[in-house]
Amino acid sequence: MTRERRLSWINGLLLPFLNVLTAFIATAIVFILIGVDPIEATKILIYGALGYDEGLGYTLYYATNFVFTGLAVAVAFHAGLFNIGGEGQAYVGGLGTAIVALYLNPALSAWIVIPLAISGGLLFGALWAIIPAYLQAYRGSHIVITTIMFNFLASALMVYVLVNVLREVGEMSPESADFIKASWLPFVHDVFASFGYKIAKSPLNLSILVALFFSGLVWFFLWHTRWGYAIRAVGKSNDAAVYGGINPKKIIIVTMCISGALAGLVGINELMGVQHRLFLNFNYGYGFGGIAVALMGRNHPVGILIAAFLFGILYQGGAELDFELQNVSRDIVVVMQGLVILFCGGLEYLYRPILIRFLAPIEATE
Amino acid sequence: MSDIFLSTVLTLDASVRVCVPLIFASMAGLFAERSGVVDIGLEGKLLMSAFIAASAAVVFGSPWIGLLAGIIASSVLAMVHGFASITYKGNQIVSGVAINILAAGLTMILSLAWFKKAGITPTLNNDQRFLSIDLPGLDLIDHVPILGVIYRELISGHNILVYLAFVIVPMVWWVVFKTRFGLRLRAVGENPKAVDTAGISVESLRYKALLIGGILCGIGGVYLSTAYNAQFVKDMTAGSGFIALAALIFGKWHPYKVLAACFLFAFLDAISIRLQGIVIPGVGEIPVQLIEATPYILTIILLAGFIGKAVPPKASAQPYIKEL
């Protein structure tokens, strides 16, 4: 094996694998600390997430959200930007979807309404990212700080809109009216039923196809278009990109809009797919989860699909743990997310010195 | 007239109470960022410390043990951040995000395991909390008009951690601007290579800065659960760590200016409760959400350079890699 191939194998697969493994071991230690047998917990978790139709449906439904936010974080990462604002972009994206799905003429065909509602989510997600992007590109304000601030602004805005504008007269809870029927994305069990197959009911809906479609699109865009090349060039070296005739300012804006738009798709799954109305905190935790997914998936769409599926398993399996064991709540998933971000992100170089020491004698003999 | 005066004093008093965790957290962030390490994890450290402090106080029956436990919890997280971002030169922002999420999850899991309720600790009784203390001379000054009210409502009657917060700020100023350690701290945040060339360890300076930050942030968390409130409640920091970060930027990394920013943001918080439902002539009713969002909006405007310019320490967020 040549040195380059071996290095890419180590950096691309071995190190990430060791990092994820460490995160899992750390989670097992947390389980032991709270008096839960980690092996039994894993069994319950995996059965709950994959063992039966309904569980699998839920797993894929959660995974769909993570694909959207994971892609959002990854696209920004490729341009060297850390978009921590997925939470807010997903929230405001949901508002875009809701406006279309509430106010379009109910007589219109679903073939018109659904694409428009999806576009609403994309557009509003992008809009919520464009100000931090502009400030980073043209005013030098750090994108991390501004996107954090925009998360809080999003949540203030959405509370205001839901309480004062979209809430129906006489209703107590801050939520919108039901979306028009034409905007409802069909449930997968209904689609199967229409072909004569009977599967268990779950919130899994056709958003999962939208998620797969956008995964492919992001892959094609990043590695097979001029724009994608420019984004990756800016991420690798700003100066080299300038020398190559790329305008990094423009790239920052474009990248963040794409990133925000992708995060804005969470509403497709949650609102058009399942709840059919806008409500508070439907986005809760998916924006931050996307960071873990992107880091675990090494910012590649295939990796993200795998990592999102894994986090879907954890979300659904975590709910099962909550139900089965007294000592554990779903929040164990949040702990895992934190550990994955820590070991796959902050401590991504943890094993490098050991591996270098281990491999140095082999190198020397060649 | 006296009504307006009293309610002004009471609003200021409420601002002081809200201000305290912001002061501790932003001073913690000041040390970290002055040394060149970005600390997004203030929120997580506040939360973790609040939870551990309330737990220790209820188990051991003393707020002082709670204080110690909270400081340790926050410092451990600070050292994790240091381990990732200083020793292993990882991404400081990613590591900070990890700490926030980890703290949010761990507080829920541990509260369920220890107290059988997720996200809540048992209520502390008065022996287990930091209670308000009356300053001396209250009887003497109480009957004096205006001053009496100010002394009774605003200056006296806070708990020890509140006074500590206001003492800490000049101490931070003194350490950062008047000591050798402070000089090195500022240098390492601007130009670590120069510090390294002078034979001073960049890594050890940054670890020290993070440890001080961990301790300060810890006190802020302890205040939340054992002084301001009488228990830990899920997500009780409610963004204080991020507001503190905003205050740090708004105060341009200078202790007194940061204190002023903390007080401004706390004041906005205090009046947002009072302004609820009040119609201002000519303007109409101001949405509470708008007032709540003001600290963030102000910080963004400042960051954009439209009102002055906030320039962070030059080496911030860059791991220092020694050339061999």
Concise structural overview:
By secondary structure, chain A is mainly α. Chain A has 16 helices and no strands. In chain B, helix 1 crosses helix 6, helix 1 runs antiparallel to helix 10 and helix 2 crosses helix 10.
Describe this structure in words.
The complex is a heterodimer of chains A (366) and B (324). Chain A has 366 residues and is an all-alpha fold. Chain A has a domain at 75-291. Chain A is built from 16 helices and no strands. Chain A has helices spanning 3-33, 38-50, 53-78, 86-103, 110-139, 143-166, 188-194, 207-224, 226-236, 238-243, 248-263, 266-275, 286-296, 301-324, 332-346, 352-365. Chain A is globular. Chain B is mainly α. Chain B has a domain at 21-126 and 138-238. Helix content of chain B is 69%, strand content 2%. Chain B has helices at residues 2-34, 42-60, 63-87, 92-115, 138-142, 147-155, 160-178, 180-190, 192-197, 202-228, 240-250, 255-274, 288-303; strands spanning 132-133, 158-159, 279-280, 284-285. Chain B has a two-stranded antiparallel sheet. A two-stranded antiparallel ribbon of chain B has the order 3-4. In chain B, a hairpin with a 3-residue loop joins strand 3 (279-280) and strand 4 (284-285). In chain B, helix 2 (42-60) runs parallel beside helix 4, helix 11 crosses helix 13 and helix 12 (255-274) packs antiparallel against helix 13 (288-303). The longest helix of chain B is centred in the first third of the chain and has 33 residues, at 2-34. Chains A and B meet through helix 5, helix 6, helix 13 and helix 15 of A and helix 3, helix 4, helix 11 and helix 13 of B.
- Tell me the distance between the termini of chain A: 10 Å
Radius of gyration of chain A: 22 Å
Indicate the structural class of chain A: mainly alpha
Largest sheet of chain B: 2 strands, antiparallel
